[in-house]
Amino acid sequence: MRLRKAAIAAATLGAVVVALVGASSSNAGHSGYWFFQGYLERPDGTRTVHHAEPGCCSDSFVVRMNWESFTHEMNFIAIHNDGSWHGFSHPETDPDEEKRFPRSDYQRGGCQNPSSWAFYRPIYTNCHIRDYGTGGV
Prior knowledge:
Elements: H1 2-26, H2 28-31, E1 36-40, E2 48-52, E3 60-67, E4 74-80, E5 85-90, E6 96-102, E7 106-112, E8 123-131
Antiparallel strand pairs: 1-8, 2-7, 3-6, 3-8, 4-5, 4-7
């Protein structure tokens, strides 16, 4: 009987751990340093990822992006408060870079594998956003 209770308790604990791990992994991009880690272009055709940095301490935010070097240029994305956006090209020779954006003009930032490079394979990309006042790379 004790063995059966122990097995039931272990199974219950295992189910709880699996549920917690599943919940945290679905939000893993938002709880770790990188908000996105993966291939751009994604299987659904998405070439751009972006994220809002709520900020607290400064008048700007920073987007950091890195990707496989010497493949092609990537774009930093900045989204205006009205929803329009700009892509700022970054050369393939420096595949780990930051770009600062003023909060007065932009509310979100992100990373893009530009469609002009669509003939290339998807590129593994890391993308991070932070308040300018919270330290560097």
